[in-house]
Amino acid sequence: MTDLAQLQALVLRHIGESQPILPRVRISTFDRPSEPGWLVYDPVVCFVLQGSKQVFIGDQVLDYGAGDCMVVAAELAAMGQISEASPERPYIALNLSIDPDVISALLQEMGGMPAPPLDKGFGYSPAGPALIEAWRRFAELLDHPAEIPVMAHHREHELMFRLLMGPQGPLLRQIAGTSGHLSHVRRSMAWIRKRYTEHLSIEAMAMVAGMSVSVFHRRFKAISGLSPLQYQKQIRLHEARRRLIADRSEAASVAYAVGYESVSQFSREYKRLFGAPPRKDAGKLQNAVNLGP
Fold it and tell me: Collapsing DSSP states into helix, strand and coil, what is residue 20?
């Protein structure tokens, strides 16, 4: 049995248990391909154990599957779908939320590593034997829950060290920094998310990032796949969708609540992003929740 197959078998034993089992770890599993869905990523490492997934970030398409490890280094708006899964061979992935303090501590122990120029805020690559072994050692704590309070910290450090030494290391080193381009763009992203209902100018966004407008626009789009104003629009529409589903509110009241002045414009942009008018889309999702899996 290969190392990856051993890890698959280990994680399969724990699917369906209460989560989180390990700190900041979530097991994702699907037994059939899914429809495309929009989401906003937090910084995360995703290791696919079985099946495959397709993610659209801006105009870029990422196809990754079993044995691939994806790193998302910023709060990105994206569309994703499970492209390969079945009841016999479900999609399985381990998702670890990134803790910048862990990366910073490791970089100090390693004597620091220069952060190379960053051209985007995400990436994936095949996991080598050392990284798969680090994931296995981390995940095997699922079989020994009493050891998690003591050992999880050490196993996570081992895993992040292997990631730092691999192809996605530059992304992780940027997360730990406070003066790099990623840090500045993430600061502006947080500012936009906090004020997503307001009329924000590109000049104000650039000022928060400490960049000129032209440099800010270029770096923001390189990292997120979207322009700053497109990013704000998608945050608005994601929040609108959440309110429509959770609160069963009318589309007009939700439109105004998330910052739109025109209900017709809101409906057009909502349909363009989610594929259906607001009330129809929300009704479909509410029915899916009520019907269960």
Answer: coil
**How many Å is the Cα radius of gyration of the chain?**
20
Per-residue pLDDT at 286 exceeds 70: no
SS3 percent helix, strand, coil of the chain, rounded to 5, is 50, 20, 30
State the first-to-last Cα distance of the chain, in angstroms, to the nearest integer: 32
Alpha helices in 29-147 (DSSP H): 100-109, 129-139
Q: What is the pLDDT of residues 9-37, one digit of tens each?
A: 999 998 877 766 788 999 999 999 988 88
Determine how many CB atoms are found less than 10 A away from the CB of residue 257: 15
Tell whether the model's pLDDT for residue 119 goes beyond 90: no
pTM of the predicted model as reported, rounded to 2 decimal places: 0.82
Count of CB atoms situated within 10 Å of the CB of 275: 13
Per-residue tokens: 174: 């940027």
DSSP assigned state of 28: E
Q: H helices then E strands: how many in the chain? A: 12, 9
Beta-sheet strands, E only, within the chain: 25-30, 37-40, 44-50, 52-57, 60-65, 68-72, 77-84, 91-97, 122-126
Q: Write out pLDDT tens, residues 145-180.
A: 999 999 999 999 999 999 999 998 888 888 876 557
d(CA 215, CA 68): 32
Mean pLDDT (whole number) for 217-244: 92
Alpha-carbon distance values, 112 to 14, 59, 106, 173 (Å)? 37, 34, 8, 9
Tracing tokens 């397709």 back to the chain, one arrives at 54
Residue 282 and residue 242: Cα distance in Å, rounded? 9
The per-residue pLDDT for 176 is 74
